[in-house]
Amino acid sequence: MRIIKPEMKQKVSLKVNGDYYTVFVRSNKTLLEVLSNDLGLTGVKYGCGTGECGACTVLIDGKPVSSCLMLALDAEGKEITTIEGLSHGEKLHPVQESFVKHGAIQCGFCTPGFVLKAVALLRENSHPTEEEIRNYLIGNLCRCTGYAKIVDAIMALSKEMGGK
Amino acid sequence: MLALTTRVLPEFTLAIPGTLEEAVSFLAQHRDEASIIAGGTDLLIQMKRRIRKERFLVHIKKISGLNHIQYDDKNRILKIGALTTINQIEKSPLIRDKFPLLWEAAQDFGSVQIRNLATLGGNLCNASPAADMAPPLLVLDGKVKIVSSKGEKIIPLEQFFIGPGKTILEHDDILTEVLVEEPPPRTGTVFLKLAKVKNDSAKINLALKLTLGENDVCKNLGIALGAVAPTPIRVRKAEKKLINKKVCEESIKKIADISAREISPSARERHSTVEYRKEVSKVLVKRGIKTCLRRIKQ
Predict the structure, then answer these.
(1) Model-level pTM?
(2) How many angstroms separate the CA atoms of A57 and A114, rounded?
(3) What superfamily in CATH does domain A94-160 come from?
(4) Cα A152 off chain centre by
(5) What averages of pLDDT result for each successive group of 10 residues across chain B (298 residues)?
(6) Counting beta carbons within 10 angstroms of the beta carbon of residue A115, is it exposed (0 to 12), middle (13 to 18) or buried (19 or more)?
(7) With an 8 Å Cβ cutoff, are A51 and B116 in contact?
(8) How far, in Å, CA of B174 to CA of B149, rounded?
(9) Which of A26, A29, A64 sits opposite B113 (nearest CB)?
(10) Prediction ipTM score
(11) Which among A72, A95, A82, A78 is positioned nearest to A154, based on CA atoms?
């Protein structure tokens, strides 16, 4: 049985956006803290810390999770995707482009979470209805624009991809 | 101590056992100071808020045999491993087909991000009066398998909860599996949830299971309500009143009234008054029975 004491730093290998990183973390470090503070991936935001706002959303093996509620040690061996992993150089991901085109961004704090959720949704269901989009976005809060433009951006992209 | 931030977790020792035996012996050794961590979506929030002060966490995700959805055709029994996530339940065609009630509750559970982490075992062991998976499993007469240093036992879920955040689990007990029998033909089920916004915990949640016999007489009825008593509860007195009776507008109203008398919402909880939740429980019970009737006839 492995016992990790509070003062012990544990060596962990994380695969983030296709790259491998070795970090030394304590047992109580959340994945959010390690991604944002240790690896400098500041697109992962601390919002509420209790899994309600969605600002810390990352994809683990393609599935959205709240990184504020996951121990960093738990993410070992998993494929982690943050907002930084979506674009290729200056070429944005189609979801990001659609958000820009539809003005689905204001202050930008919630945007990484929303974009990652939209990416996961469209992978699961390439032609969602408006209701399906709204349902899927539960758990991500935006305090600037409201949700209409975000839903529009996802609907429009789905249509471009050959949807209804 | 007051929690100043939910950014950081307090310090703890993390134990990562490879087998159930190791986990049980570690728990037995550290008793009150240790808790199991599974999905972490309840426990880590409580620790960040300094509501819980565990010195040891036992991480059980490396233990094999705790994450499965199996259906035993012969005995019509579904077995769900404690580490199965709510998302796995929601995505299981088998559960959607044979246990639509569990599927429906899983759909209404938190947000996608939470469903991908939260486990069935964790939802039950955290014992929130508002736990969304509890009412469905209560009306399906679900059982839980518990492993400890003394061996293994299976008990009805109805005996499992004893108060807010409290279960019958002893220090070295681990809930390993949930067992549910498939309901008979001509059974309709429904899960209803009332919350401020959709990913909030329930102000009231309800699971209902209705089986009709000949001439549409009620053969069996199960009603379970959450967030309106110290634990999720079956309203047994109300259920009994409908057995062998014709289901009609009048009998439905009576059942709803009796249900409301059996619950005891707490005044300071869930951002709504006792009166409101008593009144709205009646509405949910009525709506629940009617939905079941409609589903049986579909």
Answers:
(1) 0.96
(2) 8
(3) [2Fe-2S]-binding domain (1.10.150.120)
(4) 20
(5) 77 97 96 96 96 95 97 97 98 98 97 98 97 98 96 97 97 97 97 90 95 94 96 97 95 97 83 89 98 95
(6) buried
(7) no
(8) 10
(9) A64
(10) 0.96
(11) A95
Its CATH architecture, for the domain A10-85, is Roll (3.10)
Higher pLDDT, A163 or B297: B297
Decide if A54 touches B, using CB distance below 8 A: yes
Asked if B263 and B229 count as a contact pair (C-beta separation under 8 A), the reply is yes
* Domain edges within chain A: 10-85, 94-160
Residue B66: C-alpha distances to residues A108, B38, B126 (Å): 40, 11, 17
Which chain A residues touch B37 with a CB distance below 8 Å? 71
Angle at A158 between CA A154 and CA A162, to 5 degrees: 165
Burial B235-259 (b: 16+ CB within 10 A, else e): beebbeebeeeebeeeebeebbebb
Between vectors from CA A152 to CA A146 and to CA A156, what angle results, nearest 5°? 160
Distance CA A5, CA A59 (A): 28
> Closest Cα to residue A114, out of A78, A138, A85?
A138
Paired tokens of B184 = 């008979």
The angle formed by the CA atoms of residues B154, B165 and B174, to the nearest 5 degrees, is 35
